[in-house]
Amino acid sequence: MTTTQLETYVKDQFNMELYEFIKHKVEVENLYDYELATILNVDRPFIGKLRKTFGMKKSAKFPRQFERTYGPGAVERLKKIIENPDKSLASVARHFGFSREYARQVYKKVYGYPYTEAFKSKLQLRKRKMFANRKNSKHLDLLIKVKEKMESIGLTLHLRIQNHSFEILTNDYKLLLRYALTPVMIGQKEYFHITTGASPVDVDFIICLCRNNGKSIHYIIPRHVMPKHGIYLLPEARPAESKYARFKEAWHLLTQKKTHKGGVMTAKESKQLFEESDISAVRSVKRSDVQPGRINLGPHLNQKNSLSARVKTEIDRRLHPCR
């Protein structure tokens, strides 16, 4: 039988192209050349030449031997166990009743490479999963404390998951929680670094929680005021020293219902809200030569006391200690 005749035969009998038929029988069903020759009514050398022409290797002997010993589907069961990130060679050994050393040998014969690399990948995956679980647990604990704080001052709120993060809803405002648990020393003072790079833009306020030695300090900051890549907060700073000091424990910003529903609060609306909820803050703004109706968000502060100036001074001091 010629190759052309065999192609016609396979097409008529199995409704497949010859290449696909050979590939399936060799690589999926792991049939040997003599078994394939019997099915197609040709001699064994002809199948060998045909397989080499198609660039296919001989079917692996081990999987069939393994299934002959441990039952049909044993290879798939082994793969299902060992590809589970929480399982190991010991799990395979327990399931089939052989030693871990033999499980290691079986893995190499089935996959064609040692288990070492797979084990390293699993270990890294477990560490990332453990870290994520700890982080989510800590975030949830802090979120519950913020919820209790808001309820204690009479705010009714709802929690929902939005884009893999928790979103707080109160008085039609959308709030997001960000926190820092470890201070950063800049000069002689402790700052808390709040990252905001991955924060969604469709929120009205970001609650920045600084927690150290069991004490929680909250900043209720309008979203448009937050820098793109995060801020450094100094809890002990006064309004003349930090433009964010006025937002410290400013829960009163959330007590009035949102005037414009269906969209994110604009900069103008947040300023109006600040004026209505904190008259004393407006008076202090007027005394600092800022135009009426504007909030002092930083441009009129003493630049010598700004964070950037302090950081620069500290760097200069360390680089030039004798200056």
Structural class: alpha+beta
The low-confidence parts are 279-301
What is the topology, as strand order, of the major beta sheet?
A: 1-2-3-6-7
CA(first)-CA(last) distance: 96 Å
What helical percentage do the residues reach?
40-55%
- DSSP, total strands: 8
Report the CATH C-level class of the largest domain: Alpha Beta
The total number of structural domains is 2
Characterize the largest beta sheet: strand count, sense, and whether it forms a barrel.
Answer: 5 strands, mixed
Shape, per Cα inertia axes: elongated
Task: Determine the strand fraction and express it as a percent band.
Answer: 5-15%
Rounded mean pLDDT is 77
The run of helices and strands is HHHHHHHHHEEEEEEEEHHH
- The CATH architecture category of the largest domain equals 3-Layer(aba) Sandwich
CATH topology of the largest domain: Trna Endonuclease, Chain: A, domain 1
Radius of gyration: 34 Å
Q: How large is the count of helical segments?
A: 12
Topology of helices and strands:
Blueprint lengths: L2 H12 L3 H11 L4 H8 L3 H10 L7 H10 L3 H9 L6 H8 L3 H12 L3 H38 L5 E5 L2 E6 L2 E8 L3 E3 L2 E6 L10 E8 L2 E8 L8 E3 L33 H11 L1 H9 L19 H13 L4
Parallel strand pairs: 3-6
Antiparallel strand pairs: 1-2, 2-3, 4-5, 5-8, 6-7
Organism: Candidatus Desulfaltia bathyphila
GO molecular function, one term: nucleic acid binding
Protein name: AraC family transcriptional regulator
